[in-house]
Amino acid sequence: MEDLPDQRLDALVEGIVRLSSGDLSARLEVSPARDSVDAVISGVNLLAEELEFLYKELEQRVQDRTASLHAAQVELERLAMYDSLTGLPNRYMLRRRIDSEMVAAAQGMDPAALILLDLDAFKAVNDSLGHSAGDEVLIEVGRRLTSAVRDTDTVARLGGDEFAVLLPQTSDRIALEIAGRALEALRPEMMVSGISIRTFASIGVRCGETGQTGEDLMRDADTAMYVAKKRGRGNVQVFDPAMLKATHERFNTLEELRRGIPVGELRVHYQPVVSLTTSAVVGAEALVRWQHPRRGLLHPEDFIGIAEESGLVLDVDEWVIGEVTSQLGDWERLLTGRNFAVRVNLSAATSSTPGLLGLIKRRLVDHAVPSGRLIVEITETSLMTDPGASTANLRALRALGVGVEIDDFGTGYSSISYLRKLPAQAVKMDSSLIEDIAKDPRQQKFIAAGLQLIEAAGLTSIAEGIETADQARILADMGCCLGQGYFFARPMKAANMAGVITGGLDGAVDRDAPARNRTNDEPRA
Prior knowledge:
Layout: H1 4-20, H2 36-81, H3 91-106, E1 113-119, H4 122-129, H5 131-148, E2 154-159, E3 162-167, H6 172-186, E4 190-192, E5 195-197, E6 201-206, H7 214-230, E7 236-238, H8 241-260, E8 266-275, E9 281-292, E10 296-298, H9 304-310, H10 313-335, E11 341-345, H11 348-352, H12 356-366, E12 374-379, H13 380-385, H14 387-400, E13 403-409, H15 416-419, E14 426-429, H16 431-434, H17 441-456, E15 460-463, H18 469-478, E16 482-483, H19 494-503
Helix pairs in contact: 1-2, 4-5, 5-6, 7-8, 10-12, 10-19, 12-14
């Protein structure tokens, strides 16, 4: 029995070595002696059991943590590549898939096509119904677009109200067909916050072309979408290389305008506004022009749209307000005792800017101009861009004594009942309503009904674009209060307008001169 302790000790040492090497499953046999050596062996066994339990628990925790980290990584990748609102791929994911298509095309596969889509007048939905309603619209648009394309196509939301559809290995014919299906999918009304609304979109299509890069595809589709948006809502345009030239020209025009404003290249011409019953000149409309150093005198349609898109229209409007109030200050001696006011057109951006009231108040004070000499005009469409801010500004201007008129009535969204809620004094009917009035009896009835509604609302009626004596006579007989147009006078420089103020229309212009396109004098500043 003398060698028994040595054998147990050897086994004990071997067990401890195995334990230290990580083998937690081994257990030592306890002898019947139950002596001090067995007590140590039992302790080692207990230690092994505890370590084995702790190791398994730690291993489970590590597995759980690893799974959590993996899930978090997957979620981060999803957030990085998918839009959180619609669940669609985002811009980053779209670019990755475009790059994959470029690689496939370089290996001989057919090139991909790209459709870019921008919702028309989406801001009006947010402003009138709230951002939650706008989110509902975006989600529904995503669903409709997904249902309109093939399973192999990628519908992505790029941000805001802009979506894209990537069409792998697609012919021009199929690309155009899918663009049309996307447009049609958006036409049916959708219920949002209990209100039925319709959505329209401007779509640009870049058909596949061998050798193009992902940057080319995105740029060209965006250029086509921009052209589509300029041509009216619900429009589809396919990219043409000539569009890039037009884009470059627009950029150059913008930069030249940015430089031209502070150096005095803008001009204001004035078109008289007359009473249709007395032919007395009761005011004028200020029409901005740009004396371009290379292209000559430019009209608003040549540069105001670019200014509006870039935000530079705020600078244009501020300059026009300053110039008109300065001119009114110079004319004040001529205007003493006369009922005369100059109308200034406000862009959508200016009409809603917080500093509008302060700007106009300062300019009136600077040039000692009575507030009633100035009238601001805003179109129906501009008013709907940010109705809350615009209406607040118009009310503040009315409280100051500045007049307010709604321009281009009949081309936008407003009704007479809506106009009654605005702080407007007058409504100007668009020239498109006037042009056929002398030869279309139905148009006469339509205009007559509109004039009656305007009068019933307590507003003054103005007609623009009057080019013939018959038009002027018919409108006067219908009860239209004021008018302007080539029949009375073309837009003129301030010096000539001063002669009209003092001497009336006689001799100021050739009233029998042939009229040219009215759009040349459509004010947008």
